[in-house]
Known about the structure:
This is Transcriptional regulator, LysR family. The protein is of the alpha/beta class.
Amino acid sequence: MSKLSVNSLFDIQVFVLLYESLNATAVSQTLGVPSSKISRSLKSLRHSLNAPLFIRKQQGFEASDLANDIYPKMKRIVELAKHCEKIEVGTDNLRTRKLVIACPPTLSLNLLNHLQARACEDQESFLFHIKPCTSNVAELIKQQHVDIAVTYSAYNTEQLTSSLIATSSNYVLVAKQGHPLLSRQQSLELDDIFDYPYISFSGNELNDVIDPLECYALDVERKLKLVVKVCFLADLMLQLEQSDAIALLSHLDAVEFLCQRGNIGALKLERSLCESINQRSGRYHYYLTQMRKNTASPSWVGKEIHRYIQANITSDSEGYNEEIK
């Protein structure tokens, strides 16, 4: 075992990740290194221990008995190393702590400023890294590559916990300036919306999130003139400006972004119209997801994200459709 002195913490981290995923390609992508470097690390460990750690199979790897025995200890080494990174030695040498937050882009437009202001108020030093949510966000949290995330699904498992932040119950119609629906004097009806081409905007990269209006149309067997699906505001802006298509949003910051930077107008839909769309259970749900034992971020971070997103979701609109200036 004395030969282990030639192995690095990186080698141990490679072993832990491969043991957990049994997929060398996934480990390579997670660590952001070439597959050849993963192979060299495994070879180095195998040479030091003088025994095989993994058995290559057609569909991946299978852990050996030795790997099963040493995994808990290797995992502990990695955890201790990460813990040491977070230790603060005196207030004079306070380090800037990095906090990785995964969040749909349309919900995070002003989230960074919000968190920075709160950290400054508490005289805490953070380097906030806000990145989009991806389909493997749960694995990224478990592997400690993401500290906290805003997700469209709940992840209540042995390791992860999710709390409901908000449900989008109200919508804002966006279209290019001068669109007939924006200047309509009467209250909008579903028939009016179905008369125009529709752009489905999810604001995320996930494939399992269904657009509420699309869900409604499928349920009542009504034809929706769906022309394109986009997940970036810049794409949505261009599509709206170049056509008579419309879209429905539920994020106030996203609506403000489009109206300020593009030739876009917005109209908040009447509550009864929103309820008609939502009765088919197509509404979005937003959850705050993190490790059950989250030591990476102070409790105020989750509370501030919760508060910010609740304020960013469109609220109930009384009376008739209301134009947003």
